[in-house]
Amino acid sequence: MSQNVLLISVQMLKDKTAAHTNIDEKLLFPTIKVCQDMYVHPILGSALFNKIITDVDAGTITGLYKDLLDDYIIDALVWLVMSEAIFDTTNQLWNKGMVKKVGDSTETLSIDELEAMRNRYRIRGEWYLERCKNYLQATATSAILPEYLNGNDLISDISPEQRAFTMPVYLGEDYEEKCCKKYVP
User: At what angle do helices 111-139 and 74-90 cross, to 10 degrees?
Assistant: First the structure.
């Protein structure tokens, strides 16, 4: 589903984080949309995600769907959007190319500092996604949130993910060398 329905508002993002109130909404709208499509949709699966989007758009979200949105999805989205917005709001594409905005009497962070903040926000968002995933796995039945378990039958549908965390674990070159030499004839 490619509707331009947001699960959180720009104002909600600003209210729940340290995002400044003067950030242009049009800079945050695409970031919110991308984050809910890339991070939330795979956790919920297409059927449940589409149900929630449709209900939010119609203003009819109630019951367990509203609880899921309020208690799990919103917090995850807020921090994931913050992790992505760090670069989306700093760098903008203009008719002269990609530019970095620098305000009066402010000091920009280094790329290492920006990455550190991005990782910090992403970890928070992934923690909330993991809580959401655990809640869904413990709660969803054919009578309770049936869209989580059913309705992801089309090839274009996304089935719910088993894990929310995306940080890889690197065991080092020594491990790779030992592992690969062990199995090479």
Answer: 160
Backbone angles phi, psi at 154, to 5 degrees: -75, 155
Q: Tell me the residue ranges of DSSP E strands in the chain.
A: 91-94, 97-100
Within 91-110, residue ranges assigned H as helices are: none
Separation CA 87–CA 148 (nearest Å): 33
Alpha-carbon span 45 to 22, nearest angstrom: 34
Longest dimension (CA), the chain: 64
| Average pLDDT of the segment spanning 61-86 | 92
CB 152 within 8 A of CB 45: yes
Dist CA 137 CA 74 (whole Å): 18
Tell me the helix, strand and coil percentages in the chain, rounded to 5: 60, 5, 35
User: Which tens digits make up the pLDDT trace of 152-178?
Assistant: 778 788 888 755 455 566 666 665 555
Distance from C-alpha of 52 to C-alpha of 60, rounded to nearest angstrom: 9
Q: What does the alpha-carbon distance between residue 41 and residue 1 come to, in Å, rounded to a whole number?
A: 10
